[in-house]
Design a protein that fits this description.
With 348 residues, the protein is α+β, with helices and mostly antiparallel strands. It is 22% helix and 30% strand. Strands 3, 4, 5, 6, 7, 8, 9, 10, 11, 12, 14, 17 and 19 form a 13-stranded mixed beta sheet that branches. The chain starts with a strand and ends in a 15-residue tail after the last helix.
């Protein structure tokens, strides 16, 4: 851990906290734009962890997770460095859009190019200013618009250090997810920077349970890395279940979907997930599960076209055990069942 960290031309010394504006290409209105970054450095040496949100501009749960994280008293006692980037895709965030103005998906444009497309330039900036100054990373996502994800961690479990922080995040479900070409995770892995993805909730919506679980998950990783003191054990941490595979069940006809299973539900092969019908109800088609598993994602809009993804089913060796753990997890983080004084007023 060097005495002075340099990000965006700004020096941050040990024990300092700074907000830095990384200059981005301006808007065509001539208005200047920047990527906001907050850096908190402890006085003692330790890892450098980045936590990022809104790489897809409409995935906003991560913005609230990071805001709450930065307000915690824990941040005054950290070892090493926390680099918080609540809004990576500022352009998409402004427009409430997943994409950049050049219609590219930023998470398919890494590691980027300083003289390339707009997406390539933003990706290059993030890699050279954030990833290069980090030892580990947590990237926070949600499902796409009109879809919902069960809180889950996605990680390349073939890498030992990535698997360690994935398990430390303390989610019931881990998807062993391969490295997609052009993704930030893949570009970071090439630079030997282990990064996990926390997926929870829906685009353009705050989900209180997902946010609370996300804050606790980041803190848990920081404890595992030695950036924060170990918590006094009051209960055993969640033993996560790793999905062997996952598949989207798709619509076999266009129509109006009546969904019949919730996120986290345990389903068996050929179980009824929903029914698709025309507006008159004359032509109905049942949607059934293709194997035993847990519903980890689903569409929230009932108007579907043939071929659309409806229910994301993850396959586990012990689906019943996963279902019970998910139920306990939901109970723990549901504001309605938490009798303690909350640190934040729950978002409804």
């Amino acid at each position: 851990m060097s005495d002075v960290l340099l990000i965006g031309g700004v020096e941050i010394k040990k024990g300092e906290s700074r907000i830095i504006d990384l200059k981005l290409p301006s808007l065509y209105t001539h208005a200047s734009l920047s990527m906001p970054v907050q850096v908190i450095r402890g006085r003692r040496a330790g890892p450098s962890l980045f936590v990022s949100g809104a790489i897809h501009g409409d995935e906003i749960n991560g913005v609230e997770v990071i805001r709450r994280l930065l307000r915690l008293n824990h941040m005054k006692r950290i070892r090493g460095t926390l680099i918080a980037v609540p809004v990576v895709n500022v352009y998409g965030f402004i427009n409430q859009s997943r994409y950049l103005p050049d219609r590219r998906d930023l998470n398919r444009c890494f590691p980027g190019n300083v003289s390339g497309s707009l997406a390539g330039r933003v990706a290059d900036l993030f890699m050279n200013e954030i990833v290069a100054n980090s030892t580990h990373g947590i990237d926070i996502h949600t499902a796409a618009i009109h879809r919902d994800n069960l809180p889950q961690v996605r990680a390349n479990l073939e890498d030992e250090e990535t698997a360690r922080i994935a398990r430390a995040f303390n989610m019931p479900v881990i998807l062993n997810s391969g490295l997609v070409e052009g993704s930030m995770r893949q570009a970071s892995f090439v630079r030997q920077k282990p990064v996990i993805v926390y997926e929870a909730g829906e685009a353009l919506r705050f989900d209180e349970l997902s946010i609370r679980a996300g804050v606790k998950g980041v803190i848990s990783v920081m404890r595992e890395l030695g950036m924060l003191p170990r918590a006094r054990a009051r209960k055993r941490p969640i033993e996560p279940f790793v999905a062997r595979s996952s598949t989207w069940v798709r619509a076999t006809q266009s129509g109006i979907l009546r969904g019949m299973v919730a996120l986290g539900a345990r389903v068996k092969k050929d179980d009824l997930l929903g029914v698709i019908a025309d507006p008159f109800g004359e032509f109905e088609q049942q949607v059934v599960s293709s194997f035993d598993g847990i519903v980890v994602g689903r569409t929230n809009i009932p108007l579907v076209n043939e071929g659309e993804a409806l229910f994301h089913i993850a396959r586990f060796s012990s689906p019943d055990a996963v279902s019970g753990t998910v139920e306990a997890f939901n109970y723990e983080f549901d504001p309605g069942t938490d009798l303690r004084q909350p640190d934040e007023i729950p978002i409804v």
